[in-house]
Amino acid sequence: MALIVQKFGGTSVGNSDRLKHVAKRVAQTKLDGHDVVVTVSAMGKTTNGLVSLMAEISNNPSPRELDMLLSTGEQVSVALLAQALQELGVPALSLTGWQAGIMTEPVHGNAPILRIDATRVRELLDQGFVVVLAGFQGVSESGAITTLGRGGSDTTAVAYAAALKADFCDIYTDVDGVYTADPRVVPEARMHDEISYDEMLELASLGAKVLHPRSVEYAKHVNLFLRVRSSFNLGTGTVIKGVDQLEKRNPVSGVAADLNQAKLAILSVPDQPGTAALLFSALAEAHIDVDMIIQSVQGESTNDIAFTVAESDLMRAKSVVYDIAQKIGASGVISDADIAKVSIVGAGMINHPGTAATMFSALAEAGINIQMISTSEIKVSCVIERSRAQDAAQAIHRAFALDQEIVPTFA
Ligand code: ASP
Ligand code: MG
Q: Could you give the CA distance from residue 43 to residue 57 in angstroms, rounded to a whole number?
């Protein structure tokens, strides 16, 4: 008998029929003799609907009231799922985040979990209940309802699994698992049987919307056996685990294309200590996340600095950068939203020095110009023209033979 945490996403509980289907799956796990905590998201697009509703009242709502509102979506789905389980003769009980002891920092909209008091949940499990736990929500020390960030039900599931020392955590979703690329972009994309926490973390933050990045961080921290699988079929999905536990190591495990990026460049910046600090502090103060940064080496008294931000932040970033440009006497600012960031991710690439070159060659052969490059131990990203993003992803996928089970060794 195992202790299992399951999570079903919004699409999986999108209507009452789907909810009943989920109830059957949960009931089966219970029937197999396991203890089950099941976390659910709000039904379908409920959370988006609530966001729009608030927008009808205010374009600058209080974060506290917004969290109060958004947390209701999950309360609807837990009540319905608990009832659906009871209809199947399975003892089940729904709990909100605060009833389940999920304490967060006092940050609205994206609250990190501080600690979990699982006493009540443990008691209920001991009494034979399936606990149906509202995802995406917690409570601060001062008693305010908080939410964990969009997509945060994954994090509820993983954090709770860690708190309970669950045997594993299954994230049921509307895709079969984690792929080598988005199958809509690269039709030959293949599902991974397993992938490392770090690769998943990179892929999640590169916009592969399979898992909430923070959930992967928590899983990594406690070495939790985490699995992504479909709620619509019986496939075993993708296991996410430590690198050292992976059976084989391909230099590259995935290609991602992010079309929500924009590029800014500040030209002929005086080459002296403090300019980059000034620029990026101002952006940080405006809560603008900067991704890739490049400073050109000119060997004279000035440099160009280029960087990328989320396209939705471009307007705000521009106004910050124009201000700074004037202050420091830069010669100009250019911006370009017509870009995409394509990246390869792979825990094995650190041992394969030819990996970046293979990626660049694939782009070159496809006639795609590289505007910016950044690398880390497990990632190489290139900024290219947006209209070529799909070609780029396909060419790179092909170059690394990611559609094949056994990946040949590269340089
Ligand atoms: N319902 C929340 C959202 O849409 C949380 C989740 O789905 O995980 O972001
Ligand atoms: Mg969701």
A: 23
- The Cα–Cα gap between 231 and 77 comes to 16
pTM for the complete prediction? Answer: 0.84
Q: pLDDT tens, 150-198?
A: 999 999 999 999 999 999 999 999 889 999 998 889 999 999 999 999 9
Nearest CA to ligand 1 atom 5: 151
* Mutation choice for ligand 1 from 47, 54, 147, CB with most ligand atoms inside 8 A: 47
Residues 6+ apart with CB under 8 A from 30: 36, 90, 130
Give the domains, in start order, of the chain with CATH numbers: 3-173 (3.40.1160.10)
The ligand whose atoms approach the alpha carbon of 76 most closely is 1
* Tokens read off for 404: 């094949």
Ligand 1 pocket, Cβ-based, cut-off 6 angstroms = 10, 41-42, 47, 73, 135-136, 150-153
- How far apart are alpha carbons 86 and 93 in whole angstroms? 9
